[in-house]
Protein backbone atom coordinates (compact mmCIF):
# COMPACT_ATOMS: atom_id res chain seq x y z
CA UNK A 1 0.00 0.00 0.00
CA UNK A 2 1.12 3.53 0.77
CA UNK A 3 2.24 4.66 -2.67
CA UNK A 4 0.46 7.84 -3.65
CA UNK A 5 -1.20 8.23 -0.26
CA UNK A 6 0.31 11.67 0.37
CA UNK A 7 -1.06 14.30 -2.02
CA UNK A 8 1.52 16.08 -4.18
CA UNK A 9 0.27 19.15 -6.07
CA UNK A 10 1.98 21.30 -8.63
CA UNK A 11 1.81 25.06 -8.00
CA UNK A 12 3.66 27.03 -10.69
CA UNK A 13 7.05 25.35 -11.01
CA UNK A 14 6.96 24.13 -7.43
CA UNK A 15 5.61 20.88 -5.97
CA UNK A 16 3.62 21.09 -2.76
CA UNK A 17 3.37 17.95 -0.65
CA UNK A 18 1.13 17.92 2.41
CA UNK A 19 2.02 15.32 5.00
CA UNK A 20 -0.68 14.47 7.48
CA UNK A 21 -0.99 12.77 10.85
CA UNK A 22 0.35 9.40 11.87
CA UNK A 23 2.89 8.71 9.21
CA UNK A 24 3.70 5.03 9.09
CA UNK A 25 7.28 4.15 8.19
CA UNK A 26 6.35 2.54 4.89
CA UNK A 27 4.21 5.55 3.93
CA UNK A 28 7.16 7.85 4.68
CA UNK A 29 9.45 5.79 2.46
CA UNK A 30 6.94 5.63 -0.39
CA UNK A 31 6.40 9.37 -0.07
CA UNK A 32 10.12 10.00 -0.53
CA UNK A 33 10.18 8.03 -3.77
CA UNK A 34 6.90 9.51 -5.02
CA UNK A 35 8.18 13.05 -4.52
CA UNK A 36 11.45 12.43 -6.38
CA UNK A 37 9.60 10.77 -9.27
CA UNK A 38 7.15 13.68 -9.48
CA UNK A 39 9.99 16.21 -9.39
CA UNK A 40 11.49 14.69 -12.50
CA UNK A 41 8.20 14.05 -14.28
CA UNK A 42 6.87 17.55 -13.76
CA UNK A 43 10.24 19.28 -14.10
CA UNK A 44 9.65 21.16 -10.88
CA UNK A 45 12.35 23.53 -9.66
CA UNK A 46 11.34 23.44 -6.03
CA UNK A 47 9.60 21.37 -3.40
CA UNK A 48 7.59 22.52 -0.40
CA UNK A 49 6.79 19.90 2.23
CA UNK A 50 4.03 21.02 4.58
CA UNK A 51 4.36 19.21 7.90
CA UNK A 52 1.86 21.31 9.86
CA UNK A 53 -0.43 18.28 10.12
CA UNK A 54 2.26 16.14 11.74
CA UNK A 55 1.99 16.03 15.51
CA UNK A 56 4.64 13.39 16.06
CA UNK A 57 7.95 13.45 14.21
CA UNK A 58 10.46 10.96 15.53
CA UNK A 59 14.04 10.64 14.31
CA UNK A 60 13.04 8.12 11.65
CA UNK A 61 10.48 10.41 10.04
CA UNK A 62 12.75 13.44 10.50
CA UNK A 63 15.52 11.65 8.67
CA UNK A 64 13.19 10.71 5.81
CA UNK A 65 12.17 14.37 5.46
CA UNK A 66 15.74 15.71 5.63
CA UNK A 67 17.02 13.04 3.22
CA UNK A 68 14.22 13.85 0.76
CA UNK A 69 15.47 17.45 0.70
CA UNK A 70 19.04 16.30 0.08
CA UNK A 71 17.94 13.92 -2.68
CA UNK A 72 15.91 16.69 -4.37
CA UNK A 73 18.98 18.94 -4.06
CA UNK A 74 21.05 16.35 -5.94
CA UNK A 75 18.44 16.45 -8.69
CA UNK A 76 18.65 20.25 -8.86
CA UNK A 77 15.57 21.25 -6.85
CA UNK A 78 15.46 23.17 -3.57
CA UNK A 79 13.28 21.90 -0.74
CA UNK A 80 11.65 23.90 2.02
CA UNK A 81 9.99 22.19 4.99
CA UNK A 82 7.19 24.39 6.28
CA UNK A 83 4.80 24.58 9.19
CA UNK A 84 6.65 22.53 11.79
CA UNK A 85 4.74 22.78 15.06
CA UNK A 86 6.54 24.27 18.10
CA UNK A 87 6.28 21.08 20.15
CA UNK A 88 7.67 19.04 17.26
CA UNK A 89 10.62 21.43 16.77
CA UNK A 90 11.40 21.38 20.50
CA UNK A 91 11.22 17.59 20.63
CA UNK A 92 13.60 17.06 17.70
CA UNK A 93 16.22 19.47 19.06
CA UNK A 94 15.98 17.97 22.55
CA UNK A 95 16.61 14.55 21.04
CA UNK A 96 19.73 15.91 19.38
CA UNK A 97 18.41 15.97 15.84
CA UNK A 98 18.79 19.40 14.26
CA UNK A 99 17.88 18.56 10.61
CA UNK A 100 20.97 20.47 9.50
CA UNK A 101 21.05 21.76 5.94
CA UNK A 102 17.29 21.77 5.51
CA UNK A 103 15.55 24.98 4.47
CA UNK A 104 12.52 25.83 6.58
CA UNK A 105 9.74 28.40 6.67
CA UNK A 106 6.78 29.12 8.93
CA UNK A 107 4.09 28.39 6.34
CA UNK A 108 3.43 27.46 2.71
CA UNK A 109 3.37 31.09 1.49
CA UNK A 110 6.73 31.87 3.07
CA UNK A 111 8.16 28.63 1.72
CA UNK A 112 7.01 29.45 -1.82
CA UNK A 113 8.43 32.99 -1.52
CA UNK A 114 11.73 31.56 -0.26
CA UNK A 115 11.99 29.23 -3.27
CA UNK A 116 11.07 32.02 -5.73
CA UNK A 117 13.75 34.26 -4.27
CA UNK A 118 16.38 31.51 -4.57
CA UNK A 119 15.36 30.80 -8.17
CA UNK A 120 15.59 34.49 -9.08
CA UNK A 121 19.01 34.74 -7.46
CA UNK A 122 20.24 31.74 -9.39
CA UNK A 123 19.07 33.27 -12.69
CA UNK A 124 20.97 36.48 -11.95
CA UNK A 125 24.01 34.30 -11.31
CA UNK B 1 -2.57 0.36 44.29
CA UNK B 2 0.02 2.66 45.89
CA UNK B 3 3.66 1.60 45.91
CA UNK B 4 6.35 2.48 48.46
CA UNK B 5 7.37 5.59 46.53
CA UNK B 6 3.83 6.98 46.82
CA UNK B 7 2.97 6.41 43.19
CA UNK B 8 -0.50 5.10 42.45
CA UNK B 9 -1.34 3.26 39.27
CA UNK B 10 -4.74 4.53 38.15
CA UNK B 11 -5.15 2.52 34.99
CA UNK B 12 -3.14 -0.01 33.09
CA UNK B 13 -3.24 -0.80 29.37
CA UNK B 14 -1.48 -3.60 27.60
CA UNK B 15 -0.98 -3.55 23.84
CA UNK B 16 0.86 -5.92 21.50
CA UNK B 17 3.68 -4.74 19.22
CA UNK B 18 3.45 -7.11 16.28
CA UNK B 19 3.76 -4.89 13.26
CA UNK B 20 4.07 -1.36 12.00
CA UNK B 21 0.40 -0.59 12.63
CA UNK B 22 0.89 -1.44 16.30
CA UNK B 23 3.71 1.13 16.52
CA UNK B 24 1.23 3.74 15.31
CA UNK B 25 -1.52 2.47 17.66
CA UNK B 26 0.73 2.50 20.74
CA UNK B 27 2.01 6.03 20.16
CA UNK B 28 -1.54 7.23 19.38
CA UNK B 29 -2.76 5.74 22.66
CA UNK B 30 0.06 7.44 24.58
CA UNK B 31 -0.69 10.78 22.92
CA UNK B 32 -4.37 10.47 23.80
CA UNK B 33 -3.63 9.52 27.44
CA UNK B 34 -1.08 12.33 27.82
CA UNK B 35 -3.64 14.86 26.59
CA UNK B 36 -6.38 13.40 28.79
CA UNK B 37 -4.10 13.54 31.85
CA UNK B 38 -3.25 17.21 31.36
CA UNK B 39 0.18 17.08 29.71
CA UNK B 40 0.92 20.33 27.84
CA UNK B 41 1.68 20.12 24.09
CA UNK B 42 5.46 19.95 24.63
CA UNK B 43 5.33 17.23 27.28
CA UNK B 44 2.78 15.25 25.26
CA UNK B 45 4.97 15.46 22.13
CA UNK B 46 8.00 14.38 24.18
CA UNK B 47 6.44 11.22 25.62
CA UNK B 48 4.69 10.36 22.34
CA UNK B 49 7.90 10.72 20.35
CA UNK B 50 9.94 8.70 22.87
CA UNK B 51 7.24 6.02 22.70
CA UNK B 52 7.47 6.00 18.91
CA UNK B 53 11.26 5.55 19.00
CA UNK B 54 11.27 2.76 21.56
CA UNK B 55 8.25 0.95 20.14
CA UNK B 56 9.82 1.01 16.69
CA UNK B 57 13.02 -0.44 18.16
CA UNK B 58 11.01 -3.26 19.74
CA UNK B 59 9.39 -4.01 16.41
CA UNK B 60 12.36 -3.55 14.03
CA UNK B 61 15.22 -4.85 16.19
CA UNK B 62 13.32 -6.94 18.72
CA UNK B 63 10.90 -8.63 16.35
CA UNK B 64 7.93 -7.28 18.28
CA UNK B 65 6.77 -7.55 21.86
CA UNK B 66 4.33 -5.70 24.01
CA UNK B 67 3.68 -2.31 25.55
CA UNK B 68 2.32 -1.71 29.03
CA UNK B 69 1.09 1.81 29.62
CA UNK B 70 0.19 2.94 33.14
CA UNK B 71 -1.56 6.14 34.09
CA UNK B 72 0.04 7.12 37.39
CA UNK B 73 -0.30 9.74 40.11
CA UNK B 74 1.94 10.80 42.99
CA UNK B 75 -0.87 12.73 44.65
CA UNK B 76 0.16 16.06 43.10
CA UNK B 77 0.94 15.27 39.51
CA UNK B 78 -0.23 12.87 36.87
CA UNK B 79 2.15 10.83 34.83
CA UNK B 80 2.57 8.05 32.34
CA UNK B 81 4.78 5.03 32.88
CA UNK B 82 5.64 2.78 29.98
CA UNK B 83 7.21 -0.62 29.75
CA UNK B 84 8.18 -1.74 26.26
CA UNK B 85 9.39 -5.29 26.05
CA UNK B 86 10.74 -7.43 23.25
CA UNK B 87 12.36 -10.83 23.05
CA UNK B 88 14.85 -9.90 20.35
CA UNK B 89 18.66 -10.14 20.31
CA UNK B 90 19.16 -7.57 23.08
CA UNK B 91 21.54 -4.63 23.00
CA UNK B 92 25.20 -5.68 23.09
CA UNK B 93 26.66 -2.29 23.97
CA UNK B 94 24.07 -0.52 26.08
CA UNK B 95 26.37 2.31 27.20
CA UNK B 96 27.05 3.20 23.60
CA UNK B 97 23.35 2.98 22.69
CA UNK B 98 22.45 5.30 25.56
CA UNK B 99 25.23 7.73 24.62
CA UNK B 100 23.93 7.99 21.05
CA UNK B 101 25.78 7.36 17.83
CA UNK B 102 24.84 3.69 17.83
CA UNK B 103 23.82 3.48 14.23
CA UNK B 104 21.85 0.71 12.60
CA UNK B 105 20.21 0.32 9.23
CA UNK B 106 16.91 1.72 10.32
CA UNK B 107 17.71 4.31 12.93
CA UNK B 108 20.20 7.07 13.35
CA UNK B 109 21.33 5.82 16.70
CA UNK B 110 19.53 8.63 18.47
CA UNK B 111 16.47 6.58 19.37
CA UNK B 112 17.46 5.51 22.86
CA UNK B 113 19.69 8.43 23.81
CA UNK B 114 17.26 10.94 22.34
CA UNK B 115 14.30 9.36 24.14
CA UNK B 116 16.19 9.53 27.43
CA UNK B 117 16.39 13.30 27.02
CA UNK B 118 12.64 13.56 26.45
CA UNK B 119 11.39 11.81 29.58
CA UNK B 120 11.91 12.16 33.33
CA UNK B 121 13.26 8.67 33.76
CA UNK B 122 14.37 5.94 31.37
CA UNK B 123 15.85 2.58 32.30
CA UNK B 124 16.91 -0.28 30.09
CA UNK B 125 17.19 -3.93 31.02
CA UNK B 126 18.77 -5.98 28.28
CA UNK B 127 20.55 -9.30 27.86
CA UNK B 128 22.09 -10.56 24.64
CA UNK B 129 19.87 -13.27 23.22
CA UNK B 130 17.06 -12.60 25.65
CA UNK B 131 15.59 -9.28 24.69
CA UNK B 132 15.17 -5.77 25.96
CA UNK B 133 12.84 -4.01 28.37
CA UNK B 134 12.70 -0.22 28.34
CA UNK B 135 10.86 1.52 31.19
CA UNK B 136 10.19 5.23 31.12
CA UNK B 137 8.20 7.82 33.02
CA UNK B 138 7.03 11.29 32.20
CA UNK B 139 5.14 13.58 34.58
CA UNK B 140 3.03 16.65 34.06
CA UNK B 141 4.64 19.86 35.23
CA UNK B 142 3.46 21.72 38.30
- What gap, in angstroms, lies between the N and C termini of chain B? 23 Å
Mean pLDDT of chain B: 90
Uncertain segments of chain B of ≥5 residues (pLDDT<50)? Answer: none
The domain count of chain B comes to 1
Task: Give the spatial strand order of the biggest sheet of chain A.
Answer: 1-2-3-4-5
Question: What is the total tally of β strands of chain B?
Answer: 5
Would you state the CATH class of chain B? Alpha Beta
* Uncertain residue segments of chain A: none
Give the total of domains of chain A: 1
Q: What's the main sheet of chain A like?
A: 5 strands, mixed
Helical percent range of chain B? 25-40%
How many E strands of chain A? 5
CATH homologous superfamily placement of chain A: STAS domain
Largest sheet of chain B: 5 strands, antiparallel
Task: Specify the overall morphology of chain A.
Answer: globular
Distance, first to last CA of chain A: 43 Å
Oligomer: heterodimer
Structural class of chain B: alpha+beta
Share in helix of chain A? 40-55%
| CATH class descriptor name of chain A | Alpha Beta
Largest interface: A-B, 21 and 28 residues
Could you please describe the fold and organization of this structure?
The complex is a heterodimer of chains A (125) and B (142). Chain A is an alpha/beta fold and 125 residues long. Chain A has helices at residues 25-41, 59-75, 86-95, 108-124, and strands spanning 8-11, 14-18, 46-50, 78-82, 103-105. Chain A has one domain (8-124): STAS domain (Transcription Regulator spoIIAA), CATH 3.30.750. In chain A, α1 packs parallel to α2 (59-75). The radius of gyration of chain B is 14 Å and the shape is globular. Chain B contains four helices and five strands; from the N terminus they run βααββααββ. The A-B interface holds A 22, 24-26, 55-60, 63, 85-88, 90-91, 94-97 and B 20-21, 23-24, 27-28, 31, 41-42, 44-46, 48-49, 52-53, 56, 100, 106-108, 110-111, 113-115, 117-118.
Amino acid sequence: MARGSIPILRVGDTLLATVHVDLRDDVAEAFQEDVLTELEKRRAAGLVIDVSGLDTVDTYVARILADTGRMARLMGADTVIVGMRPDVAATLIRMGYAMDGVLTAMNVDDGMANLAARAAERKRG
Amino acid sequence: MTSADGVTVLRRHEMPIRDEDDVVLVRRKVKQLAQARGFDAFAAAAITTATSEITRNAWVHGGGGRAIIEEISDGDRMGLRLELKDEGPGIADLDRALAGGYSTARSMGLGLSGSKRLVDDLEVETAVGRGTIVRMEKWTRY
